[in-house]
Structure formats: structure tokens, C-alpha cells
Amino acid sequence: MTLEFFKYQGTGNDFVLIDDRNETFPASDQALVERLCDRRFGIGADGLILLRNDPQYHFRMVYFNADGAEGSMCGNGGRCIVRFAHDLGLFERETRFLAVDGEHIAFVTEETVSLKMSDVTGIDNRGGLTFLNTGSPHVVQFVDDLESLDVVKEGRAIRYDARFQPGGTNVNFVQPIDGGTLFVRTYERGVEDETYSCGTGVTAVALVAHQQLNMPDPVLIKTLGGNLRVSFNAKTQEQFDSIHLIGPAKRVFAGTITV
Ligand SMILES: N[C@H](CCC[C@H](N)C(=O)O)C(=O)O
Questions:
Q1: Which positions bind substrate (predicted)?
Q2: Does the annotation list 96 as a binding residue?
Q3: Do 187 and 159 form a contact (C-beta atoms < 8 A)?
Q4: Which CATH number fits domain 123-242: 3.40.50.300, 3.10.310.10, 3.80.30.20, 3.50.50.60?
Q5: CB-based contacts of 248: which residues, under 8 Å, 6+ apart?
Q6: What pTM was computed for the model?
Q7: Measured from the CA of 63, which atom of ligand 1 is nearest?
Q8: Residues with beta carbon inside 6 Å of ligand 1?
Q9: How does pLDDT run across 168-226, given as a tens digit for each residue?
């Protein structure tokens, strides 16, 4: 079988995008998705995303982590599929689409995609670790020297910690740069490695920084792959709506692969 694919990236979080409006992609073949995402034996990506039709929306997003399993919400992937749908001509400036965590609205400009994220209803303390769900589960931990932190080692220990079983969690390490800017590095579940950026992760970080450091809206985030902005409305200290993740998302290349 020959597959046509597109490669997109949003602040270095990279994805294989497939136009699957005719629903021919074998989505239950986990080994195939894993192989397509493999950086040596496949195309290489942090995840794979199918663009499918939906009767009530411009499109539906189906997201798989690099391990081939269907994942929870992916913020950078969401921004990339919005750019993809725009490149396919499915909408002009504003879109409504469906993802695993429900409806999303997004706006595109030449440079950026602004994606409305799900509302956040709580921030927990799990035995000393700050945990919240922004569409995907995230731990947020402040550290002093993020540059030299072993993110894979420290992140993996928390990802598999008993407090977050059975699903596990993504893990974000954060160091404030100034009163409105944070440096973030993320260990991603399902990729089982550090990625260059994680959209639901930096969203979680911004909300926690508002709660714990009084950081005002919007929060600016620096990741290994570039800069993002998170804007939000704080209803209480741990409830947020009108959350938007804003930053670049670009097509890198297109290709065909025989599988
Ligand atoms: N990179 C993604 C997160 C994917 C979530 C995934 N790692 C999981 O929790 O299963 C993002 O930009 O939000």
C-alpha cells in the first residue's frame, strides 16, 4: 500500500499528517503507526494525525502518539492540523473541529495558529507534585537549573510513578526567565522521550505559573523548539476558561511511503 503524507511541525513538535477523509488508513494497526513515526525506519515524528470528515465540523482530528497508541489531546498537533486543514482549503480564517477532548475553535494568521483549548477544572497536589489535565495529563515542576537537568531520567521516573497509574503522565520542568516568561522542557508520555515542545504541557505550565507565581495573562513560553504564548481567563485559582495556545505551525515536506 502506498500512503501520501505531509510532515508538519509546531515549535519543533513534529507530526505526520494524513488526509484520511475517505477513511482508508488502517488506524487500528498500532505497529504501522509506530513504524511511520520511527526516525530511522520510517518518516520520523512525535505523533501521527488523521484528518477525517465530521458531519458537524470542518474536520475531526484523530491523534496517535509515536508508540502507535491513540493519545489524549495534543495541543501542538492541534495547531498543526489546523494549518493542514487551512492548506487543504477547508476554511479561511476561523475553524471549528472535533478532537478527542471535544470541540475546538482556532484562528490562523500568516505566522501563527491560535487554538482554543479545553477548559481546566482543577489543579491537584499529588503527594507534593502539581498535576492537572489540559486535554492530556501533566505534572508541572519548578526547577533551578533547567539547562542542565536530565529531563529524560527525571521525567521518566515521575511518568511511571505509582501516583499517576494506570495512565501515567507527561512531565514538564519549568524555570522562570522573567515576570512574564518561562523556559519549559517536557518529557512526553507515548513518545517516552523529551520532545522539543508540548502544547498541552506549556498550557498546563502557564496556568500553574498564574496560580503559584501570580504570572499575568498572557504567559510567554520558551521551549527547545521555539516560543509559544498562552492566554486564559482565570475563573478561580484553579479553574480556567478561554484558554488559547498561540504560536507557529508549518508544513515541512510532503511525500509518499510504501508500507
Ligand atoms: N505533544 C502533545 C501532547 C501529546 C500528549 C501525549 N504525549 C499524551 O499525553 O499521550 C501536545 O503538544 O500537547
A1: 13, 65, 75-76, 170, 188-189, 199-200
A2: no
A3: yes
A4: 3.10.310.10
A5: 10, 11, 111, 112, 113, 226
A6: 0.97
A7: 4
A8: 13, 65, 71-72, 74-77, 136, 170, 188-191, 198-201
A9: 999 999 999 999 999 999 999 999 999 999 999 999 999 999 999 999 999 999 999 99
